[in-house]
Amino acid sequence: MDNLTDYFARGDEFAKHVGIELLSVDKGSARAQMRVQDHHLNMAHVVHGGAIFTLADYVFAVASNSHGTLALAVQANINYLKAVRGGIIYAEAREVSLHRKLATYEIKVTDEPGELIATFQGIVYRKDQPLAI
C-alpha cells in the first residue's frame, strides 16, 4: 500500500466502523467498496440511503484531500437510482474541477454487476493547511 492510500485507509474511523475498504487513490480520484451486511439494511431490507451516502462521501473526501492539502465539504447531494439488497457496492470519485479554493467532484456508486445505484456530487473548500502524509 503506498503512502497516500495508507494515510486515507487508516485515517477515517467511521469508514472503518461501517466496513468501507479503500481500493485505490490517486490525485483527484478514489475508489472504495463496502460489503453489504445486515446492519446496512433499512426496514425495507434494502441498503440504507445513509450507508450509500457514507460510501460516496468517503471517496469524495479521499479524492478531494489527495492533493495533500485539507479539503472540507461545503456542499454534497445524492440521487438514488436503484435499490440494492446485498453483495458489494463500489464508489468511484472523479475530480471535475480544481481551483485554488474550490474543487468539484462526481461520484458514481455501483453494484457488483456494475449497474449504477446512485450519483453524488460535491464541492469542497480547499484550505492552505497541508496534510501530514
Lay out the secondary structure.
Layout: H1 3-11, H2 13-18, E1 20-26, E2 29-35, H3 49-65, E3 69-80, E4 88-98, E5 102-110, E6 116-130
Could you explain the architecture of this structure?
The structure is a single chain. With 133 residues, the protein is an alpha+beta fold. It has one domain (3-130): Roll (Thiol Ester Dehydrase, Chain A), CATH 3.10.129. 24% of the residues lie in helices and 46% in strands. It is built from 3 helices and 6 strands; from the N terminus they run H-H-E-E-H-E-E-E-E. It has a 6-stranded antiparallel β-sheet. Strand 4 (88-98) and strand 5 form a beta hairpin. The longest helix is centred in the middle third of the chain and has 17 residues, at 49-65. The chain is globular. The model has no long low-confidence stretch (mean pLDDT 95).
Core attributes:
about 130 residues, alpha+beta, Thiol Ester Dehydrase, Chain A, six-stranded antiparallel β-sheet, 3 helices
Beta-sheet strand percentage? Answer: over 45%
Largest sheet: 6 strands, antiparallel
Class by SSE composition: alpha+beta
| N-to-C SSE string, H for helix and E for strand | HHEEHEEEE
Radius of gyration: 14 Å
In summary, what is this structure?
This protein is of the alpha+beta class and 133 residues long. It is 24% helix and 46% strand. It has 3 helices and 6 strands; from the N terminus they run ααββαββββ.
